[in-house]
């Protein structure tokens, strides 16, 4: 059945997940299905999970695996029929591919309730083993939570995106495009669908998947794409945090409003049926075992052992499995808006704003989403000590200090500049891609 013919009322929830062929993205899809069915046992609502991979083969393999998961995890077959998985292909480093996916989604689906922007690359080429071994032996929890020993080259750039206007193209950094800009373009392009959300969860949501390793220390506004840094992954995730956490501020409003606009390809999308703009949230999976940093099997299991030991020593972030790491992104995607508003209310009531939500676990494996301290933003942008007791009692990054007013003002200024630069870059690329498509036709 064509998804566009499905009932478009509030009985349907539609979520897009990028990068789902394995690891965290695959687990987000599994957990979306599990939690949707668990929390809505007594109603007739349905869930459609659109997931992206980079090829049809990977998409078909992932679809089979997801359907097998659904069959084995649901005790009542009729319940499983309420969840549909829908594969799509996209290469986030190919902006014409991003456009093609956007058009297919706008034509095929009645709405999107959430987009979970998960896909990405690390860009690392190795590990500084002396630093890693010393850190694990002398300060294990710090070393395996906020590592400083991953090795990455600077200056990795993508090939030209176009044929006819290649001489006009600005340079695109590989990690920046894969982790941030490709998603940024995709999210803007599907805004018509996000604007049609509303029931049952509330306004549409853009849910970014960041990292604990994100730090403003790795980010330079004069090097937005992280071309000059030896930590391009950390720089890209810091940019993700900055954009998300400042998206509600008056100072960023002109550029955020432009980003939320529904101006993409109006010929293939119906006008938005609601004036309520989406909300932007940021999450992270804690520390779990994935293949983003390639390791030989013995080293991978040694890494998991160190994660388990860190959890026993009091780390709240070592979720270990990608399924547990999916906790926070899924919570942000599926929860009623009233639940998210209540979670952020303590921060707003004390002069703060958005919080960064991370997947956390205790020693016994209890999994839950919790606020995460961010350099320059603290917990939810509240100046001074954390206002939520659980935040005060949670183990902190070594050297962390309470947020000051000056730091918060710098973070807000940084957010304004980041939003301005990102919107300028998006509009520049939209013009170039328009010109390319006029000459060569659309890539569907």
UniProtKB/TrEMBL annotation:
SUPFAM superfamilies from the UniProt entry: NAD(P)-binding Rossmann-fold domains
The name this protein goes by in its record: 3-ketosteroid reductase
Listed InterPro entries: Ergosterol_Biosynth_ERG27, NAD(P)-bd_dom_sf
Keywords (A to Z) from UniProt: Lipid biosynthesis, Lipid metabolism, NADP, Oxidoreductase, Steroid biosynthesis
Organism encoding this protein: Aspergillus lucknowensis
Keyword Lipid biosynthesis found: yes
Family of this protein: Belongs to the short-chain dehydrogenases/reductases (SDR) family. ERG27 subfamily.
Superkingdom in the source lineage: Eukaryota
